[in-house]
Write a structure and sequence with these properties.
Rossmann fold, six-stranded parallel beta sheet, alpha/beta, elongated
C-alpha cells in the first residue's frame, strides 16, 4: 500500500497562473507515488471563509485518514495561515517557498513572522536562490531543499502556424515581415525590467528589431491604483508587492509612446502566445535587482525554450536555475544596457547559428526540466520525512 499524504493549497485550478499550474502538476505527479488527499481553494466560496474553515477541514481529514504520514503546504502564505498545524499534529509538515513569500520586505514580516516558518519540519525551494534566502533567515540547512519547477513538454510538440504573421498584422497592426523579433511576457512589475529595457536598450538596437510585450496591461487607471497614489511611497509599494499589482505599469505605458519598434499586445490567447514565442528570434527577461521583490524561478523562460526560442536573461535571483548560461540561454548582467544590446545584436547577426543554439536549448530544457522530474524531487524529500521520523 502506498503511503498517504495530505496536500493543502490555495493556488489551484480553475484559477490560472504559474503557481496554480505548479501546484496542480505537483499534486498530479505525487498521486503516482502516494495516496494523495487534497484540500484546495477552487473558488467555490469566499477565500477568507475558506481559510477560516481550513482548520476544521484538516482535523476532519486527519481523523478520517489516520495513516496520513506527511502534510504539504504549497507556499509561504499557506505556511503562515496554517501555523496552528504545529500544535495540533505531530505529522511532518513541509512547505514550498517560491521567492517573494520569504523575501517580502516588511520589517514585521521578516522580524516577527519568518522565524515561525522555521519551525515546520522541512522546506522545499523552487530555486537555489530561494533556498539561500531561507538559509539567511535561519532555516536548517539539513531540512531545506531545492527542487526546481518543471515545464510542460507538450508545448514543444505543437507545430508552428505561420498564419500568426497575418494575425499580428490584422489584429495588432504589427508587420513582422523582414524583421527580427524579440519577445517578453509577464505583468509590468519593476523587477521584470520592462520599462528599463524600453528606455535603455531599445534605443541601442537596430531599426529592424521589434520588441513584442505580452501580458496584462490596462491603460486606464483603476480605483485601487488611484488610492495607492495617495499613500506614502514605501507603504504603497509594499502593498503593490503583496497583492501583485503592476508596479511598472505607468513607466511602461510612457515608454511605449516613445519607442517606435516596441508594442504591447496585452493578453493573448494561449494558442497565439505559443505561436508568437515560436515566431520570435529571442525571448528576453531583463530583470532588475529590486530589494525584497525577487524572481523565484523563471517558468516563462522554460516555456519559451520549449517553443524553440533562445533566451537572454539577467543572471540574478532564481532565473539562474531556469536559464543555464550557454545551454538554453545566455545570462547577462542586470542593468547593463550596452551588454544587452551587444549580445542581442551578436545573436541576431547569424540566423543559422541562432537556430542551432535555439534547438540545443530546447533539447537541454526538455532533458532537464519536466513535471515528472519535479515530482520525483518532491518524493525524495517527502520520503526522508516519512521514513525517518
Amino acid at each position: 500500500m502506498p503511503e498517504e499524504i495530505l496536500c493543502i493549497t490555495h493556488k489551484y485550478p480553475p484559477f490560472i497562473g504559474g503557481m496554480e499550474k505548479q501546484s496542480y502538476e505537483l499534486i498530479k505527479g505525487l498521486s503516482a507515488y502516494y495516496t494523495t488527499h487534497l484540500i484546495a481553494y477552487q473558488g467555490n466560496e469566499n477565500k477568507i471563509l475558506w481559510f477560516i474553515k481550513l482548520r476544521s477541514k484538516v482535523k476532519a481529514i486527519l481523523k478520517k485518514h489516520p495513516n496520513i504520514k506527511l502534510i504539504h503546504l504549497n507556499d509561504g502564505t499557506m505556511g503562515f495561515a496554517s501555523l496552528w498545524l504545529q500544535k495540533i499534529t505531530r505529522i511532518p509538515v513541509v512547505v514550498t517557498y517560491h521567492g517573494l513569500d520569504i523575501t517580502y520586505p516588511v520589517d514585521f514580516f521578516q522580524n516577527r513572522l519568518v522565524h515561525k516558518l522555521r519551525k515546520y519540519n522541512g522546506a522545499i525551494c523552487v530555486s537555489e536562490f530561494t533556498r539561500q534566502e531561507c538559509l539567511k533567515r535561519g532555516f536548517d540547512e539539513k531540512t531545506t531543499f531545492t527542487v526546481n519547477n518543471g515545464v510542460e513538454h507538450s508545448l514543444g510538440d505543437i507545430p508552428y502556424d505561420d498564419t500568426i504573421v497575418q494575425r499580428l498584422r490584422s489584429e495588432y497592426n504589427i508587420d513582422v515581415s523582414n524583421k527580427k523579433v524579440i519577445v517578453s511576457t509577464g505583468r509590468p512589475v519593476k523587477r521584470k525590467g520592462f520599462s528599463w529595457f524600453l528606455k535603455n536598450v531599445m534605443p541601442l538596437l537596430d531599426e529592424d528589431i521589434l520588441f513584442l510585450m505580452i501580458g496584462p496591461l490596462t491603460k486606464k487607471q483603476t480605483l485601487v491604483e488611484k488610492f495607492m497614489q495617495n499613500l506614502p511611497l514605501n507603504i504603497g509599494y509594499k502593498i503593490h508587492l503583496l497583492f501583485g499589482f503592476s508596479t511598472d505599469k505607468q513607466d511602461v505605458i510612457d515608454q511605449l509612446t516613445t519607442q517606435k519598434n516596441a508594442y504591447h499586445l496585452g493578453k493573448v490567447s494561449d494558442d497565439d502566445l505559443l505561436q508568437i514565442l515560436s515566431l520570435a528570434d529571442l525571448f528576453v527577461m531583463p530583470n532588475l535587482s529590486i530589494p525584497g521583490d525577487v524572481e523565484g524561478f523563471g517558468l516563462v523562460a522554460l516555456e519559451a525554450s520549449m517553443r524553440g526560442t533562445y533566451i537572454v536573461a539577467s543572471g540574478i535571483d532564481g532565473i539562474t536555475d531556469a536559464v543555464i548560461d550557454n545551454k538554453n540561454g545566455t545570462l547577462l548582467p542586470a542593468g547593463n544596457a550596452q551588454a544587452w544590446a551587444d549580445k542581442i545584436h551578436e545573436l541576431l547577426s547569424d540566423k543559422e547559428k541562432l537556430q542551432i543554439l535555439s534547438a540545443r536549448g530546447k533539447d537541454y530544457t526538455r532533458q532537464h526540466y519536466s513535471w515528472e522530474i519535479m515530482a520525483n524531487g518532491y518524493k525524495e524529500v517527502f520520503d526522508r520525512f516519512i521514513h525517518h521520523r
